[in-house]
Write a structure and sequence with these properties.
about 425 residues, globular, about 0% strand, Growth Hormone, Chain: A
Length: about 425
């Protein structure tokens, strides 16, 4: 296997470049709509911020519930038929989602768009499995960092452009996102090679692995994955505070327009790019995957706590460098998790992780969205609009404690098995 790895670096680099481009365009599309969707929802609620927050909960719960049931199915399907067809289906569903939201005349049509996306949203889990296919275990944390940087690159310009387009017309960013995602799908259809060769695929589709509980059994069957999966879930749950409330939070607390909110997200994206492009590799090299995980969790908890407290924009911006270091968590965690399963289980692992993300996407908006709505309705007494963000910071503290106590380097035989 070592000889094969050494003999194939050009092919690996080319394939990784394709996935990097897919992740980049995907994130730009999402970035365009992030500062706009809550305001579009708000326009359907007569300008009621608390009601808009509650509707955002409905949309996010729908998406999370569908992800919980369908992400494991798509993960196992990618182990059986390959990564490329699953990725193409996911990108096509995302393009339809954006188009439906661009044309939506009411909240029900917005919900239908989220429903379609929830059924097919597996682009990043499949991309992560693709990366695991083409990258040696020792280099995966760095590779996942580069994929994360592609996501952050998208959030550098996407929200700022989306906010600017949204000031022209709230629907315009969705049309642009639909066009970009369609181009991404076409790019994948014509250029993207398959990463998972037939000899490494599952011999037959296994429904016991494809259902949510069956997929999560993979985590339980590898006992060393259990604590790492718990950290994954806590991270994803805490991270849900951003899409759940931050656009409405910044508009309410600081009076920012969509364009200004987009610019603040651009600053956050720049910091994320710097961390993922230039800090993940050196941090993993110096501190190891566990060290990167611990540093990211501690910094993320600190940044979120400052976000919740920030009485003025200067304090909010001061928290951004700490929050950006939270980007160290996933590369370190992915590197540790992919070492613990074989090549025929990488898709199932990513499906299980996405299933946990689906649960977080189900619980997070309920927890943070309803907490934010409650804090606004009781603001005269409580005066704590950042209460939901404090809860997210507490979740990252818990993730740090679990990582400190349980996250360890895998046994050598597990790493050899992961190479295949």
């Amino acid at each position: 296997m070592a000889e094969q790895t050494a003999a194939a670096p050009p092919a690996r680099r080319a394939a990784f470049g394709f996935i990097f481009a897919v992740a980049l365009i995907n994130s730009i599309s999402f970035g365009l709509m992030i500062p706009i969707l809550p305001n579009l929802v708000k326009s359907f609620t007569g300008g009621d911020t608390a009601a808009a927050s509650e509707w955002n909960v409905v949309f996010a719960v729908t998406w999370g519930l569908l992800q919980f049931f369908f992400a494991p199915f798509l993960g196992v399907l990618s182990d059986r038929v390959g990564r490329r067809p699953v990725l193409l289906v996911s990108l096509f569903g995302l393009a339809i989602d954006f188009l439906v939201m661009a044309l939506a005349p009411n909240l029900m049509w917005l919900w239908i768009g989220r429903f379609i996306n929830g059924l097919t949203a597996a682009s990043m889990p499949t991309a992560n499995a693709y990366v695991a296919d083409v990258t040696p275990p020792a280099e995966r944390a760095k590779a996942f960092g580069w994929i994360g940087s592609a996501m952050s690159f998208g959030f550098v310009g996407g929200p700022a452009i989306g906010g600017w387009l949204g000031d022209i017309d709230l629907r315009l960013p969705f049309y642009v996102a639909a066009a970009l995602t369609s181009l991404n799908w076409l790019y994948g259809l014509l250029i993207l090679p398959e990463s998972h060769p037939p000899e490494k695929r599952l011999k037959k589709f296994d429904w016991s692995r494809a259902n949510p509980l069956g997929s999560l059994r993979l985590l339980r069957s590898h006992h060393e994955l259990v604590s790492l999966a718990a950290i994954w879930f806590l991270y994803q749950l805490a991270h849900m505070v951003y899409p759940a409330i931050f656009v409405l939070y910044m508009g309410h607390r600081y009076g920012w327009s969509p364009a200004l909110i987009g610019l603040s997200m651009m600053v956050s994206g720049v910091l994320g790019v710097l961390v993922q492009s230039f800090l993940v590799g050196p941090t993993v090299q110096r501190l190891g995957e566990r060290g990167a995980l611990l540093l990211g969790a501690a910094a993320g908890a600190t940044g979120m706590a400052i976000y919740g407290w920030a009485p003025a924009p200067w304090a909010y911006f001061a928290a951004m460098p700490f929050a950006a270091l939270m980007a160290l968590v996933i590369p370190g965690l992915q590197g540790m998790m992919t070492r613990r399963v074989g090549p025929h289980e990488q898709g199932q692992l990513q499906g299980a992780n996405q299933g946990l993300t689906g649960i977080a996407a189900l619980a997070g908006p309920i927890l943070f969205g309803l907490t934010f709505a409650w804090s606004l309705r009781n603001e005269a007494v409580l005066q704590a609009p950042g209460l939901a963000i404090y809860i997210a910071a507490g979740l990252m503290v818990l993730a740090f404690v679990i990582a400190l106590r349980t996250a360890k380097a895998p046994r050598p035989e597990l790493s050899k098995e992961a190479v295949g």
